[in-house]
Design brief:
- 63% of the residues lie in helices and 2% in strands.
- A two-stranded antiparallel ribbon has the order 1-2.
- The relative contact order is 0.08.
- The termini are far apart.
- The chain folds into 2 domains: 190 residues, Vacuolar protein sorting-associated protein Ist1 (Ferritin); 111 residues, no CATH class.
- By secondary structure, the protein is mainly alpha-helical.
- Belongs to the IST1 family.
- It holds the Pfam family Ist1.
């Protein structure tokens, strides 16, 4: 009973495989003729763009032309593989394992089936081969494992990667020569040779402000054209103040360090009426000078505090040595 069941399923598998392969071959021929008409129209449009000087559009359109030409070439190879497998369906039915002479054709069909959405018959053929030879055989071809035996041309032509610059330039020259367009490819060669920067990189470290830079800004009204003096924020660089490190400072010194800090600078707001006329510009400059003076005083206070801290640390260190 089991032998009759296997024989029946084997004959059913062969019949379904023949039907799907015949439909796939017919559809590939139909799509090939349709794609040829579309490619001819697309190449003609690109030639018109080249003739009118719209090279930027031509550089974009030519990628689609190359993609369609690659798909058309892949379909031609798949058509040959389908015809090859169709002629040897009786051998597939008679043998349990995949014959060595059919491994490349079957693996290529399994790999190309999900990448050819306009050939649904290939997916049915792939399911039949998966049922007969197992999921591991189908996964090896789909994942391009070392022993998958998928045709190299099928892999290259069905790739979704953008074509190289040399291929695009060669295609544009071929289109210009085909339609007799006098086209200077120097600008396109320069454009293709450019190395575009990665916009996803982080900010440059030089653009990040450091703690040693003190930026003093004040909300000032926009300068009028009659003033003739632009109002910009002033930046004054203040160096770091070195503080000697002590291995075990006394609590009094620590409290003194925590209590001493730079003076707080508070600038009163500027009256908007001062921005009118030359008087407003002169008052703005005076306030800017006052801000710089306050910054100098803050820097002097910080240096004085650092000197006091140094003196306290040295005294504490001397007392520790005497007590020891």
């Amino acid at each position: 009973m089991s032998s009759l069941t296997s024989l029946f399923s084997r004959g059913l598998l062969g019949a379904r495989c023949k039907t799907c392969l015949n439909l796939a071959i017919s559809r590939i021929k139909l799509l090939h003729n349709k794609r040829e008409v579309q490619l001819k129209q697309m190449r003609k449009e690109i030639a018109q763009y080249l003739q009118s000087g719209q090279e930027s559009i031509s550089r974009i359109r030519v990628e689609h032309v190359i993609r369609e030409e690659n798909v058309s070439a892949a379909y031609e190879v798949l058509e040959l593989f389908c015809e090859f497998v169709l002629a040897r369906v009786p051998i597939l039915e008679a043998q349990r394992d995949c014959p060595s002479e059919l491994q490349e054709a079957i693996a290529s069909i399994i790999y190309a089936a999900p990448r050819c959405s306009d050939l649904p018959e290939l997916m049915q053929v792939r399911n039949l081969f998966t049922t007969k030879y197992g999921k591991e055989f189908s996964a090896a071809a789909a994942e391009l494992r070392p022993d998958s035996n998928v045709n190299r041309m099928i892999i290259e032509k069905l790739s979704v990667r953008a074509p190289p610059a040399e291929v695009k330039l060669r295609a544009l020259r071929g289109i210009a020569q085909e339609f007799g367009v006098e086209w200077d490819a120097s600008s396109t060669e320069i454009e293709f040779s450019k190395k575009h920067e990665d916009l996803l990189e982080g900010l440059n470290s030089s653009a990040i402000p450091t703690a040693s830079t003190v930026i003093i800004t004040q909300s000032m009204p926009p300068a009028s054209p009659q003033d003739g003096l632009p109002i910009t924020p002033m930046v004054q660089s203040q160096p770091h103040l070195p503080v000697p490190a002590v291995s075990n400072p006394a609590p009094a010194v620590v409290s003194k360090i925590l209590s001493v800090g730079p003076e707080k600078i508070e600038l009163p707001p500027v009256d908007s009426s001062l921005s009118e006329g030359p008087r407003g510009a002169s008052d703005a400059l005076e306030r800017a000078r006052a801000a710089m003076a306050l910054a100098e005083r803050a820097s002097a206070a910080a240096r004085t505090a650092a000197a006091r801290i140094n003196a306290g640390v040295h005294r504490q260190a001397g007392n520790g040595k005497q007590s020891g």
